[in-house]
Amino acid sequence: MAFVAYSISLAPVVLAYARGDWIPGRATYFDAPAEWKAKFSQQIFGDLYGNACGYVNKGAGFESNTNFPFDRAAVAAVADFDADIYEGSCGSCYEVRCLSGRVKANDGGWFEYDVKRGFYETDPNATDTFGRQLAKRGAVLDANGTLVEYARCWNENATIKVRIIDTCPCDYITGKQEICCGPVMHFDLSYWAYERLAHPLQGKMNIEFRPIRCEDGEPTDASLGAANRVDRTIYTGSRTIYGEGSVIGAGWAWLPYKDKWLVVERPGYGRNGSAATCVNVDPGGRIAFTCWSCERKAKPFDAVYISFWLRISCTAQFNVPIYVGISARANKKYGQNGAVVTNETETQIGVKRLLDVNFYDSRTLDDNCGRMVVIPTEDLAPRNESRAANTLSIELASASDPAWARAGESPRPATTCLDDVQLIR
User: Which fold has domain 2-226?
Assistant: First the structure.
């Protein structure tokens, strides 16, 4: 099998590729400890909890790294220029290692070292969170006498495993971000992941990476794109990854609407007391799970059933009107100057279905106040249409919907907890 890679001369070359092979790339980092941000204030670091995949516990006092749902030393963003890497990237996992040397630029050369903006010049004795200092400036002279960036790894044999939580867009609201535009495959590691491979006074480094299964670290086939990694189990509180409570399936982003609060992983609120993803929304609000562009290859809704465990309240009535639907969603696109080229779009596929007794596989509440819901995908859309979907939504009826009156309820906010969200062929 062949895998398309790129040389630093910008010329595409086809290399022999086999599953598990290492792929060349580059990394920077985002977010950092508060004292690091204060020291190097001329740089914009961003934050982990503002990520594009929606992996954030939302609500008053929630949105901070203290409440970030994953190990902050095991997360990253990925550039969006390569469709096979970008599609369905949220929640997918990679193994990464550092390569010492001059740092590759997109134009086929090396990044020039900027003395005026260099971290080392600001504070050469700055320590990372392990108390380590950088032995010497991350720069060397090239054959032409130009000072270029040079990164030194702590240990080139060391690897880290990261989950994708964000994207590094080439075109963005701030304008073109050249470092994310290829052809060098680029990752934005979290500060805490980056420092495990190299000192963060070195803002960039060369890496090698390979996609892996999140559950066990087994290498997967990068050439297959989303078709190889998107998990048909979107969320389950009974699964752990690398010994942590990590229950998000590879490929899936969280997309709440009209939400008052959201907890990505709420212990004890799932099936049989496991974790659940819970959201409190106003009427017309929802929680949706979307898989970026993965209908191109993975076609996740080419499924026979959609099933999930649902907890609305601990009452026997269970009569809050909830709709289920699938849609095709496209993210907002920016031009080179930051202007919006294409707005976010979402197209309903088929129809939304109001949950009723026909979709519950049991009329009896389980020991944690929830029920299993099983919906044939063809009840939402014909199979040839559902293959175009990339988003699943569980939506509270709008305030004007007669379903409230039929249920004997007045429109009101409601908390919904979900577990074992699966697409079943």
Answer: Barwin-like endoglucanases (2.40.40)
134: pLDDT strictly greater than 90 = yes
Please tell me the predicted confidence (pLDDT) of residue 13.
37
CA 403 – CA 130 distance, rounded (Å)? 57
Strands, E, within 17-85: which ranges?
23-30, 75-79
Cα four-point dihedral sign 309, 314, 318, 322: negative
| Adjacent-strand bridge partners of 308 | 373
Q: pLDDT band at residue 316, thresholds of 50, 70 and 90? A: low
The helix (run of H) or strand (run of E) holding residue 279 is strand 276-290
For residue 8, pLDDT over 80 is answered with no
Taking the domains of the chain in order of start, what are their residue ranges?
A: 2-226, 230-424
Instruction: Report the run of H or E that residue 39 belongs to, with start and end.
Output: helix 34-39
Bridge partners (DSSP) of residue 12 are 6
Q: According to the CATH classification, is domain 230-424 in 2.60.120.430?
A: yes
- Please tell me what DSSP assigns to residue 99: E
**Of the candidates 221, 306, 308, 238, the residue with the CA atom closest to the CA atom of residue 272:** 238
- pLDDT at position 33: 94
User: Is residue 89 classed exposed, middle or buried when 0-12, 13-18 and 19+ CB atoms within 10 A define those classes?
Assistant: buried
Cβ within 8 Å of residue 271, ≥6 positions away: 237, 238, 309, 366, 368, 370, 419, 420
pLDDT digits (tens, 9 = 90+) for 340-375: 777 788 999 999 999 987 787 655 567 778 888 999
> Which segments of 136-191 are extended strands (E)?
139-141, 147-151, 159-168, 171-172, 175-176, 186-190
User: Is pTM, for the whole model, over 0.85?
Assistant: yes
At 101 the three-state DSSP class reads strand
